[in-house]
């Protein structure tokens, strides 16, 4: 009998070399936001971004993790060219934008954005830390998430920026929280 593959959200968090697995949900340049739905086993269309707005980099999730918002941890992925929804690859984390979102109900919840570089990237191969990013890039990314959330009736507030060690610690915490789901 053939073995059934696990849902993408339940793939291993880490690859063989200790890099994180990333499942791309929304490709760079897309004006549409997609998210993996475990219930459907497919990518679900979530929304259209405002006219003239698109995702600045590939955006996805780290499988088998759970953030404070109850979803897999979010990751912004630097890659040479846009990938496609469902593409699974490995990345090394270079940092994190620790942030909160105020939902429509007025409650604040953590919703961090990890920053990763695809292991096989060439254009971004020199990036190993947030300081290696071009000047102003993180400001632009933070402004994108702020604007995107504002237009969807939410508020996005940056708490701080963290290094690769902080990003990896969040992934370990997220993997532990995910593992507790079955307890």
UniProtKB/TrEMBL annotation:
Pfam families: Pyrophosphatase (PF00719). Keywords: Hydrolase, Magnesium, Metal-binding. GO terms for biological process: phosphate-containing compound metabolic process. GO terms for cellular component: cytoplasm. Its cofactor is Mg(2+). The keyword Thylakoid does not apply. It is an enzyme of class 3 (hydrolase). It comes from the Bacteria. InterPro entries: Pyrophosphatase, Pyrophosphatase_sf. SUPFAM superfamilies: Inorganic pyrophosphatase. GO terms for molecular function: inorganic diphosphate phosphatase activity; magnesium ion binding. Its EC number is 3.6.1.1. This is inorganic diphosphatase. The lineage of its organism: Bacteria, Pseudomonadati, Pseudomonadota, Alphaproteobacteria, Hyphomicrobiales.
């Amino acid at each position: 009998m053939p073995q059934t593959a696990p849902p993408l959200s339940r793939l291993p968090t880490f690859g063989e070399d200790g890099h994180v697995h990333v499942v791309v949900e929304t490709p760079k340049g897309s004006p549409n936001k997609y998210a993996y739905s475990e219930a459907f086993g497919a990518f679900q269309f979530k929304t259209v971004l405002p006219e003239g707005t698109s995702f600045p980099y590939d955006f996805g999730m780290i499988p088998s993790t759970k953030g404070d918002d109850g979803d897999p941890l979010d990751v912004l992925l630097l890659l040479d060219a846009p990938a496609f929804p469902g593409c699974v690859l490995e990345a090394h984390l270079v940092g994190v934008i620790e942030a909160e979102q105020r939902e429509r109900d007025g409650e604040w919840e953590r919703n961090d954005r990890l920053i990763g570089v695809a292991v096989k990237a060439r254009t971004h191969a020199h990036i190993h830390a947030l300081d290696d990013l071009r000047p102003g890039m993180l400001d632009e990314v933070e402004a994108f998430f702020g604007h995107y959330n504002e237009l969807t009736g939410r508020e996005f507030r940056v708490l701080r920026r963290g290094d690769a060690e902080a990003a990896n610690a969040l992934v370990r915490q997220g993997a532990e929280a995910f593992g507790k789901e079955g307890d």
